[in-house]
Amino acid sequence: MSATCSLMVFTDLDGTLIDHTTYDWAPALPALNTLRDMSAGLVLASSKTAAEIGSLRQKIGAEVWPAIVENGAGLLPPGERTVGEAGQYASVRAALDGLPRDLRRLFCGFGDVTPAQVAQMTGLALEDAILAQERGFSEPGQWSGTSSQKDAFLAALAEHGVTAQQGGRFLTLSFGRNKVDQMRLITGTYRPRHTIALGDAPNDIAMLENADIGIVIANPAHPPLPELKTEAAGRIIRTMHAGPVGWNLAIRDALDRLEL
């Protein structure tokens, strides 16, 4: 397929485009409008479900582009609100529930609690928490054990083919595929001349390193990311401001660097 855009932007949501605490993205509107005016592709890439991203993508005005859902475990086609019944979520839950009890009790997933408890865990409104439980591919949750117990937990899950990714808030379990896997599929389809990626958490690192310019958004809620592989080559921008404020300023900086 020939190039459909000169630029494609891949962005994490919580703590990046969306404020970590308030879930507001309004401060990023100037840069979002600039990207829209130049017909740049905007791909949302998040741990959020298709149900969550489908609604948000429409509000942001990015529904004509695919979205990466559940930390890359799934892909939401343009214009769609659901990905259908993937069946993977039930299998992830079965593997999780098959673990030894002393390990299983240390992980509290979204499927273990009520919508009200998900709202408390995430800070989401109740209606949004309900959408967060409409999962097709992966199980996010909170870990309460030690690092050595976590190693044993992950090793036991690996025997069932389940892997884990650490995000800004949750440890997410799935049968593989991550944000950069889906990023490569999308760029292989659209073949943009330039790519920008933005994120704030460990599960964003590969995506940041595979973009022409990777933007690390400051997030005071957790430690900063380590130096990235492409940083010494000048392909990484680190923001001073957090969330959508940093996102807005960094997009403008990246566009200047790419002379777009």
Characteristics of this structure?
globular, alpha/beta, 5-stranded parallel β-sheet, 36% helix, 11 strands, 4-stranded antiparallel β-sheet, 260 residues
Which sheet architecture does the biggest sheet show?
A: 5 strands, parallel
- Write down the overall geometry: globular
End-to-end distance: 22 Å
What percent strand?
15-25%
Order of helices and strands: EHEHEEHHEHHEHEEHEHEEH
Number of strands: 11
Annotation field: number of helices: 10
If you compute it from the alpha carbons, what radius of gyration comes out, rounded to the nearest whole angstrom?
Answer: 18 Å
Helix/strand-derived class? alpha/beta
Strand order of the largest sheet: 2-1-9-10-11
In terms of per-residue confidence, which ranges show pLDDT below 50 for 5 or more consecutive residues? Answer: none
**Helical residue percent band:** 25-40%
Question: Which whole number gives the mean pLDDT?
Answer: 92
Give the topology.
Blueprint: E1 7-11, H1 29-37, E2 41-44, H2 50-60, E3 67-69, E4 74-76, H3 88-97, H4 101-104, E5 107-109, H5 115-122, H6 126-132, E6 139-143, H7 147-158, E7 163-166, E8 171-174, H8 179-190, E9 194-199, H9 205-209, E10 213-218, E11 236-242, H10 243-257
Parallel strand pairs: 1-2, 1-9, 9-10, 10-11
Antiparallel strand pairs: 3-4, 5-6, 6-8, 7-8
